[in-house]
Amino acid sequence: MVRLGILVALAAATAACFERGGAREAPAPAAAALPSTATGWRTADPPGVPDPTATVRLALEAEPATLDPFATLDAASGRVLAGVVEGLWCPTGDGGVEPCVAASYQRLGQRYIFHLDPARRFSDGAAVTAADVVASLDASRGVGHAPGPLAGVLDDAVAITAVDPATVALEVRGDRATRLRDLALVPIVPARQLASPSLASAPIGTGPLAIASWTRGEAIRLRRVDGAARRAGAAAVAWVVVADRADAIRRLAAGQLDVVTQVPIAEAVAATAAHPRLARFRYAQPAMLVAVYNCRRPALADPAVRRDLTATLDRAGIARTILGGAATVTGPWLPDDPRADPTVAPIPFARARAAHPPALAVLVPAGSTTTARIADIWAQDARGRFALTVETAPFADVLARLAAGDFDVAITSISAGPEVDPGARLTSAAPPDQAWPGLRDAALDRALAALAAAPDAGAQIAAGREVHRLVAALAPMAFIAVDTRAGLAAATVGGLGAAPGAPEAWRLWQAR
User: Fold this and answer.
1) What ranges in 222-290 are assigned the alpha helix state H?
2) Are the C-beta atoms of residues 182 and 4 closer than 8 Å to each other?
3) Strand, helix or coil at 246?
4) Mean of the pLDDT values across residues 170-186?
5) Shortest CA distance to 387 belongs to which of 354, 339, 425, 429?
6) Global pTM?
7) Of 127, 108, 218, the residue nearest 171 (C-alpha)
C-alpha cells in the first residue's frame, strides 16, 4: 500500500517551509497551483553555457540512515537517489510516467509484458537483463530482500518471470489504475548486488549519476555517468549534510554551497535582500504542514480527544497571519483533489475549557521559526483545555523520534499530491518507522486497501472520499495548510526549473 510518489518526492517528511508571531501514462489530477511569480524570483537559467567539469553542491538537511532503495523512502535518501536509480517507468513530475528501463509494454488481460530498453545500462557498464528486473521486483515485495516500505506496490503479483533476456512478464490479480506509477517506485538494480552490503551505501542504478563516496556526517558525492540515457548537467554532485537551515544559508552566501531547498518564502526573500548575488526560486512540490498525533499515547488514544485538540488549533488564523494566506486544508488530500470529500468540513476553532487538561509536548524542528511560532500560539490558545509545552530538536532527531514513536505531538511537513498514498502512514500494516501516528483502525484499513486496488478513476474517487471521511473522524493528524516550496541558489546555477517539481540534482549545472 505504498504509493508515495517516486523516491525523489517520495515520501516523505521535510522541514516545514512556512513562515501570527514510449507509452506515457496520463498525468494524475493537478496539484495546488503555486502563487503568482513576483519580482525577484528566478524564472530563467543564468546566461552562459554549462561547465562540463563543475560540481554542484546541495544542502542535505538530514543524513540518510541507509541508501538501500528497498529499505527506505525517507526524503533525504530520496533526493540523493533520484538520479541514481530508475524504475521500469520514470515519473515526469506532473503525476504521469514515461518509459525508462522499459522501452515499452503490452497488456494481455492480467498479464503485463515489459520490453527492456537496450540503451539502458547500469552505471558500472553492465547490461540490464530481465533477471535483474525480476530480482528487483521480487526484492520490493520481500523476496530475496528483507520486506520494506515498497512491499505493497506488488502485493497483488501472481508471478514475475523472465520471458527472455530482454523481456519480463508480470502477472497480477485484478487491476489498478495506477499500475505504471506504482512500478516507477521500484528501483532496478543488478541482481548480484541485492545480497551485497554495498546496496546500503552505494546502490548501482541506471540513472545519470552514480554514488562516488559517502563520508558519514559530511557529504555524499555522486559522479556523472558517461553514456547514460539521461545526461547529468554537472560532472559531479555533492550532497552536503547541514542540519541547520540558517547555517546552510550562511554557507551558500559564503560560496561553500550552491543550492539550498526547503526554505520558507520569507527567509528566501530576506536572504536575497541581504545577499544580492543569490537567486531565489519557487518549485511545485506540494506538501501539507501537519501536526502528527501519537495515537499510542493514552492521552491521545481517543479520536474525540484528538478532534478536541485540533479544535484548539486556529488553522485559519495561522494561515492568514503566519503563512501568508496559504489555504487551510482538511486532509489527507489537497483541496482541489477529486478524492477530497466536499462534505467534510474542517473542525472549527474553539477554546472550550476542560476540568483536567492533559499535558502534552509539541515537538518542532530546531531552526524552524515558523513551526515554533505555530506551536507557541497553539499552546496559548489551548490553555485550560490542553497543557501544551513546546519542545525543539534537530530535524534529523525529529524524524528519528517520529519513526520510533517517541513523541506526543510533532509538527512537520508531509508530501502531498495525487501520487501520495496515505496508507504509508495510516494503515495498520505500515512499517513502524513509517506509521508515525501509530493508528490502528480496521475500517480505515479496508478503505485504504480499496483505494490501492481501485481499477479506474471513478473507483479511486469513491474510495478516496471514504478515506477522507474516516481520516476526518479518526483525526490522526491535524492538517494545517498547504505549503509551496522555495529555494536559494548561487546565481551561476542553472537547471532549477527543468522539471515541474522540486529541482533534481542531475539536471543542475554551473555556468562557465
Assistant:
1) 245-253, 265-274
2) no
3) helix
4) 90
5) 354
6) 0.77
7) 108
